[in-house]
Amino acid sequence: MNHSISVVIICRNEAHIIGKTIAAANCVSDDIVVVDSGSNDGTQSIVTATGARLIETVWDGYGPNKNKGVAVAKHDWILSIDSDEIIDETLIKQLQTLTFSDQTIVYNIRFRAFLGNDMIRFGEWANDRHIRLYNRKHSGWNEAAVHEGLTFPANTKVVTLKGYIHHYTSKDIDDFRAKTINYAMLNAQKYYARGKKAGWLQCWLAAVFSFIKNYIFRLGFLDGRAGFIVAKMNAWYTWLKYKRLRELNKMLDDRN
Predict the structure, then answer these.
(1) 220/216 Cα distance (integer angstroms)
(2) What angle do CA 144, 33, 59 make, to 5 degrees?
(3) Of 97, 162, 175, 210, which is the most exposed, with the fewest CB atoms less than 10 Å away?
(4) Given CA atoms 39, 45, 49, 51 in this order, what sign does their dihedral have?
(5) What are the tens digits of pLDDT across the range 56-66?
(6) What's the number of CA atoms in the CB half-sphere (13 Å) around residue 16?
(7) In Å, what is the CA distance from 104 to each residue of 7, 72, 139, 140, 246?
(8) Does the pTM exceed 0.85?
(9) Distance CA 82, CA 149 (A)
(10) Which residues fall within 8 angstroms of residue 256, CB to CB, at 6 or more apart?
(11) 228 CB-near residues (< 8 Å, 6+ apart)
């Protein structure tokens, strides 16, 4: 265990996996903070049973909710993960040996994505990596409700760690569909707030291009049925996002 790291987890209705996520996190930290935004499936009971600290709050967006957990963390070094993300053995061993002597370093972590129990090796989900370990005195999450990102000074050094975070993005097709709809709505709202517009041609062309790019050019077909489902759902997400953006802009035009 590394007593320099606090692990901050955001979640809602993840009773099926949150226990495993916390169990892995306990191998690298003595301070686990779980920010729950209104679970109704028993997630909170599982969190408290593990000994992790539970922060119950409303959903204000990915960036704001992560910052709520960071604000109460015991340590300055923060490992930020979602409730459906589990750190693997190789990453655990590396995290246990880090010395954290330079707070201007941020740590990049590679991801392996799963649909159900199927690991996705190709397509849009392949070769995913994100900066998830940082010192809160040097870096921090912006307040974006979706597609949140870390902000840090120009002198920051980025180091990639060994090992992976395993991202169990959806437990089944229905869960994947629900998350796709939610994420499309959130991104449409973000685009609308920025004054973006979309035409019908863009809705369809962007969706078709998304499928071809991920299923053909990024070799998603090599993942079999799971690869087809991921490529199809990502294309549907693109169509839904721009369709909703058109609806929001039409409502604005009607009011004017």
Answers:
(1) 6
(2) 35
(3) 97
(4) positive
(5) 999 999 999 99
(6) 9
(7) 19, 21, 8, 12, 42
(8) yes
(9) 14
(10) none
(11) 215, 220, 221
